[in-house]
Amino acid sequence: MSLGITRLGRLVRRPADRGQIVPLFAIGLTVLVAATGLVIDTGGAWAQKRNEQRTADLAALAGATAEANGALRPAIIQAVIDSAVANGYQPGEVTVNIPPTSGKYGPGGSGYSPDDCSTAALAPCWIEVIVSRPHQNTFTAILPGQQQWGVTARAVSVGGLYNATYAGAAPIMFDLSAVQTPPNDERFCNIKSSTCPSPIDPLPANPNQFQWTEFCVKGDPHCNFDSARGKQLIAGTLPLTITQWMDLGPNNTGQHVDVCKALVDAYPNGGTIVVAISAPDPADPKNALLIGIWTFAFDPTKTDCTKGPIIGGTFVNDATTTLPLTIVAGGGKPEVGQFGARLVE
């Protein structure tokens, strides 16, 4: 009899046992809601991240477009802010760094440049845009310290004439042999000097020769180089369009020593300039044609404006494939590529 009662007692749950189910269910429901909330809030944060990235990209491109159109630092930054605001962000949620503070185009990166577009001489510059806005959590907010998550997007852009040089153009031409055959040294003599290797001719023909030149179209009254226009070209105040096969006017007038000194004054610590690569015109051997553009590392320590003069430096790279080139007024370093604005990070 007692055995039956024992079995019956096991089959009938006590009230205390039934009461334990309620808190266990509550805990399980809380975990389920928290997990569901985490998924929902994470999805919302990712959606916000995508929107911020789109905003950062568009804002960076807006700044680069302003730069490509000649704007300087204040106007570039304003273009970035205006774009971000138009896409629903407040100015305080947007940071603009020119130059960038991190990444490939930040300090220590392979593409770093200190230029900040504060003046035309400090262009082109790279523009870093950071868009930040906290994501306000809905479900995950019930967890300690999870009321909001920081969401940030970043973009880097640059604008300008990538197939152009902001000044930096030098009124110098070298014969094709200078880049096909390595010169004997890093010093090039002016072909107008009696001490320069033969042949003495209006056009350079020896790898170690150079000639002052004017980019021109045959029949142009400026096709004969003069020192005034040479100085303007060095200073970046002579806008003109350069296309392949155009004529190169040799130095027939003007003081080439003065132009040499102007080049040294423009690059007292050296710098990269753009030089013309010439070849004789088959129809007129005393007329030079532009067949290429090279960047040239000008070295004032190996330049002597009193002897010939002599220009010091080395060839850096061939930019011919980017022709036609547009040389515009301004300053800074040669940039090769496509015209316009682009995202680089």
What keyword list fits this structure?
disordered N terminus, alpha+beta, 15 strands, 7 helices, elongated, seven-stranded mixed β-sheet, 345 residues, 30% strand
What's the layout of helices and strands?
Layout: H1 2-11, H2 15-19, H3 21-68, H4 73-86, E1 94-97, E2 126-136, E3 148-161, E4 164-166, E5 169-175, H5 177-180, E6 187-190, E7 209-216, H6 227-235, E8 240-242, E9 247-250, H7 256-266, E10 271-281, E11 284-298, E12 310-318, E13 325-328, E14 334-335, E15 339-343
Parallel strand pairs: 4-13, 5-10, 6-7
Antiparallel strand pairs: 1-2, 2-3, 3-15, 4-14, 5-7, 6-12, 7-9, 8-13, 9-11, 10-11, 11-12
Helix pairs in contact: 3-4, 6-7
